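Quick one, tokens below:
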């Protein structure tokens, strides 16, 4: 099984490209942002660590983590952001490791793992991936896409460029179909390279 990480800034089409490629037989997609959200729920170790670090002010009346309140706390505080990442990202990697093992047993051929922290966080276990792809598009293109989706405020949430080494950049300026085709071709080249190395 090939495991491919897909990262990139908001508006580059990570989720849409991964979803489009997941229609291929033998290909599955994991949304790491959704995995992370699940770890914020009461009963998870991450939940208690977040409250211990950031205080009870991040808990709603229903006992859930108020992600908006947490985002406000860490948005302009680099140390708080680093602490949040150090709590959440290793737990995400641990959950991902388990999910990859499950997919290997089920016969999945290609597993696409998409998320905002891929290509950025030093806390992600990059040894889990056969390749990490960073989708890139000019800010004005991403701004227009985000505005169309009513999420223009997301533009600056993630850096424009990857911060970890070994990432393969793919231009995502064109249509989703064009970008998906580029990613598919890259995965095929990885398969050819692996076959040639045997």
């Amino acid at each position: 099984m090939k495991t491919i990480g897909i990262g990139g800034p908001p508006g580059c089409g990570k989720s849409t490209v991964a979803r489009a490629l997941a229609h291929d037989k033998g290909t599955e997609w994991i949304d790491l942002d959704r995995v992370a959200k699940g770890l914020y729920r009461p009963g998870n170790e991450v939940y208690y660590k977040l409250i211990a670090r950031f205080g009870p002010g991040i808990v709603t009346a229903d006992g859930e983590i108020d992600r908006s309140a947490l985002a406000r706390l860490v948005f302009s505080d680099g140390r708080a952001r680093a602490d949040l990442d150090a709590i959440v990202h290793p737990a995400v990697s641990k959950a991902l490791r388990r999910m990859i093992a499950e997919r290997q047993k089920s016969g999945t051929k290609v597993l696409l793992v998409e998320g905002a922290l891929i290509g950025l966080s030093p806390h992600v276990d990059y040894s889990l991936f056969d390749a990490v792809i960073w989708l890139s598009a000019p800010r004005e293109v991403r701004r227009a896409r985000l505005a169309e989706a009513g999420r223009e405020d997301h533009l600056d949430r993630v850096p424009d460029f990857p911060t970890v080494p070994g990432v393969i950049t793919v231009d995502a300026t064109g249509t989703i179909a064009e970008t998906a085709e580029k990613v598919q071709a890259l995965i095929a080249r990885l398969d050819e390279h692996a076959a040639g190395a045997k």
